[in-house]
Amino acid sequence: MTQELNDNEKWLAAEFAMGALDRETMKQAEQRYETDRLFRSAVDEWNNRLSPMLEGVAPIQPDAKVWDQIAGKTSQTSVSSSNNIWQSLNFWRGFSLISGGLATAAIAALLYLFDGIQSGTPTITQPLVATLSATGNAPTLLARFDPETNNLMLRAALPGGDNTKVAELWIIPEGGTPHSLGLLESADMMLSLDAETSTLINDGGTLAISLEPMGGSPTGAPTGPVIASGKLHKF
Amino acid sequence: MILQTHKLVGFFLLMYFTGPMNGPDPIANLLSRVALREPLAFRQLYDQTSAKLFGICLRILNNRADAEEALQEVFVKIWNKADMFQTGRASGIAWMAMITRNQAIDRLRARKPGSVDILEQSDLADDKPSPETNTIASDEYRRLNNCLDELKPQHAEAVRKTYLGGWSYQETADALNIPLNTAKTWVRRSLGALQDCMKR
What we know:
The complex is a heterodimer of chains A (about 240) and B (about 200).
Chain A: H1 7-18, H2 23-35, H3 37-50, H4 64-81, H5 89-101, H6 104-113, E1 128-133, E2 139-146, E3 151-156, E4 165-172, E5 179-184, E6 188-192, H7 195-198, E7 206-213, E8 226-231, E9 233-234
Antiparallel strand pairs in A: 1-2, 1-9, 2-3, 3-6, 4-5, 4-7, 7-8
Helix pairs in contact in A: 1-3, 2-3
Chain B: H1 2-18, H2 26-35, H3 39-61, H4 64-81, H5 92-111, H6 131-136, H7 139-150, H8 153-165, H9 169-176, H10 180-199
């Protein structure tokens, strides 16, 4: 492949960005945009140059049914392409339905119960709970830490994860630095923490999830974007 | 109060972890999350961009039902192809607008192959920015329009009709009553002039 586009190819990039070509040529150019790096950057340059013109186009709210149709079509795609529960739109929908309808306290109560009804007298050490959400949204993950057993229970509605990225869970003690608790591999997990790690989990600490390369953060500290975070508090 | 603290911590954490890596392009950020198959991000992306993209579809297709179908196809494409988007090249919204325009233009060309139906949109003043738009517009928008104003009015019109209205060379030629090759020459010459003007 040559390192530079010739004049014809440069015009093709500009005219593709303009949308001036006939249907067949537009389709061919679109194909090329996806496969040819040089061509793509030439088109992107033109796009950046011309797209400010679109500011003059007034936004118009589409009918609500448009989203329903999109949701239907993409849900089909995602379910058929993978059996991963994190990628299932239905799973996510069910989850946000529950969490959207309940207060955090109620979710916490469910969490308290989800490993079985505790019998006997109340314990002195209190469990800690956290709901992790992307800023301003329904919880992405619920966590409950039992200081008696050092078990951290997780229930995730994390849709993240393709073949190149994994979700990693971190604890950031109040005023401290992030410490990895491991990779999130399924929707329901129980992490048995060692005594040392358990001391990091305290009221006021924060749980966070970042996206990392396969195998987890190579540096021991978060390297990818944080997709959710939430503070631990006493139940 | 507790909730606010919680949000604040979340915010600072986000800043702490992501730093300048994700840049100031929230749409690009959402696209990256859509690439990771995150339905919530997809919904947010829809909420933040669908009205704009629908406006673009309507401008090209001039028909609500058609524009709604085009918008549907656009978002299905974005769900499937979000991993094609790479930050740093085009802005998130510019990339989405490109997909939208291509989809709407494809529909337009399929609808009337070779035929021209431009009578309903032949008002040549209609794509010029209104004074109101200009007061709230971005620097890029103003700069681009200043550069368009440096072109001959008919040439600028050809560029606007092609880009915003989805006109092909053939349609521009028919609408402006000029030969096809002249339309091509005008648009190419205008693009060259725009490129130079915007470098200044």
